[in-house]
Design goal:
- The protein is an all-alpha fold and 207 residues long.
- Among the domains are: 82 residues, Helicase, Ruva Protein, domain 3, CATH 1.10.8; 37 residues.
- It has eight helices and no strands.
- The longest helix has 39 residues.
- The N and C termini lie far apart (150 Å).
- It comes from Polyblepharides amylifera.
Length: 207
């Protein structure tokens, strides 16, 4: 069973490699253009020409010009004038391919930038949240002592203000002159009672 699993794994791996190779060749074939008859460049014939030392682009140009005819392509490559024409054609086609890739890359970058610009920027909201976080932070010992002193001072000011208000209220109710008069009358009454008490004591002594 283990041997069968290993063999199956190897077959699957080989199949994946073949599939990747075919996809790569198809992508390359799409970039090589077509013959005058509208056919794709024959990749097998191109491999034969490249095995003779010609570049893939030049081999593809010869096959496009000959309509995928191997012998005609070889004749064109061996002729200096035709070879020069094919080189110019392959170079021009390569420049067009590069320009197309650059345009596609530029368009993709512009689309990505457009998408990024549509995403709301929350950095300002995060920055604005910092003061709130600082306000929610527990006060330090120095801040707590300063707060207590400020509170005590404020309470003392309020107590003093209340005392002043009470004094003013009493003053307005009785008047300062009335208060002084009441004190004088009490002193006079006390002295009079003391005088009466001394007179009574004298009378008793006389009898």
């Amino acid at each position: 069973a283990a041997v069968l699993l290993v063999e199956q794994r190897d077959r699957d791996s080989a199949e994946r490699q073949r599939a990747r190779h075919e996809r790569k060749r198809r992508r390359e074939q799409r970039g090589l253009g077509r013959t005058h008859q509208g056919k794709k460049v024959d990749m097998d014939l191109m491999d034969q020409l490249t095995s003779l030392g010609y570049s893939r682009q030049l081999s593809a140009a010869a096959l496009r010009q000959s309509g995928n005819q191997l012998d005609a392509s070889l004749d064109a490559l061996l002729d200096p004038v035709t070879n020069q024409i094919l080189q110019h054609s392959s170079e021009q086609m390569e420049r067009e391919r590069q320009g197309k890739r650059q345009r596609e890359s530029t368009e993709e970058g512009a689309q990505q930038e457009s998408l990024n610009s549509e995403v709301p920027d929350n950095r300002g909201q995060h920055n604005n949240s910092y003061p709130n976080e600082a306000a929610d932070r527990p006060p330090s010992n120095n801040e707590a002592r300063e707060h207590d002193l400020n509170t005590l001072s404020s309470n003392e000011e309020r107590d003093e203000e209340c005392e002043n208000q009470i004094a003013m209220s009493l003053g307005n109710s009785y008047g300062l002159s009335s208060y002084d008069m009441m004190v004088d009358e009490e002193d006079a009454i006390t002295e009079y009672l003391a005088y009466i008490s001394s007179v009574d004591s004298s009378n008793h002594n006389c009898t």
